[in-house]
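Renewal narrative, Specific Aim 1. Our central claim is that a sequence can be written position by position from structural information alone. The example that follows is taken directly from our test logs and has not been curated for this report. It begins with the structure tokens describing the chain, in the order in which they were read.
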């Protein structure tokens, strides 16, 4: 995609899809800031970026902390003297069984909203001024298909990811005059266990029902989309929801 000379930041890049995105952008020629709350994980991902012949820095950064996101953005710019691409990938899902609304606690609701939505806001707020200073750039936010079609007993997660879509569209309006594209990707049911260092697993059959392309969604189906949105080939695409789900939901 011709990202030579560009500097990309990927949050939540210690493991999983964030790690995949960071390595794909490095393969396309970008130097990468790998950011995550998992310090050991970001160091490992940064080493893999360097193995691809690109420069990398690893930053331990909690996206829910304004202080840490501001410091991370400054360190990245001071290191590379530019920031071209921000991938807001950091996110979590409730780590307990699906529960009815009446059993969802306020603290758990706030935890999900803080990471998935407020974290996207804080990282964008911290890094965008440096992308503006660079003169052109891309912000790529990661939402979820559940924001479009809903999901049972995960109201907190669905709300947080729907908020990311609204935030993306508003930010696209604000950053467009600065030659910055802002888009959001909504994957659904990704089989990413290997990317997390886990044994491969077969997702439930109902996770594929309703798709017109009826197979598991894999990391390789997403990394090319991220690379495209980070490249000059997407220069006239902004404020868009890029839905990667095998056709389960059509957005018109």
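The sequence written for that structure reads:
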């Amino acid at each position: 995609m011709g990202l030579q000379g560009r500097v990309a930041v990927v949050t939540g890049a210690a493991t999983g899809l964030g790690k995949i995105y960071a390595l794909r952008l490095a393969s396309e020629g970008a130097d990468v800031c790998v950011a995550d709350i998992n310090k050991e994980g970001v160091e490992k991902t940064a080493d893999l970026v360097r193995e691809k012949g690109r420069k990398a820095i690893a930053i331990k950064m909690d996206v829910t902390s304004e202080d840490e996101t501001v410091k991370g953005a400054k360190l990245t710019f001071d290191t590379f003297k530019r920031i071209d691409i921000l991938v807001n990938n950091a996110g979590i899902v409730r780590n307990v069984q699906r529960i009815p609304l009446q059993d969802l606690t306020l603290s758990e609701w706030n935890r999900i909203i803080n990471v998935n939505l407020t974290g996207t806001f804080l990282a964008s707020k911290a890094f965008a001024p440096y992308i503006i200073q660079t003169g052109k750039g891309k912000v790529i936010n990661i939402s979820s298909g559940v924001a479009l079609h809903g999901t049972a007993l995960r109201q907190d997660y669905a709300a947080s990811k729907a908020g990311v879509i609204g935030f993306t569209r508003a930010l696209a309006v604000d950053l467009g005059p600065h030659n910055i594209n802002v888009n959001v990707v909504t994957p659904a049911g990704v089989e990413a266990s290997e990317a997390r260092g886990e044994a491969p697993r077969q997702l439930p059959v109902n996770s594929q029902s309703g798709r017109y392309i009826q197979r598991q969604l894999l990391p390789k189906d997403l990394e090319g989309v991220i690379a495209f949105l980070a490249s000059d080939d997407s220069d006239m695409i902004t404020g868009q929801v890029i839905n990667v789900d095998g056709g389960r939901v059509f957005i018109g």
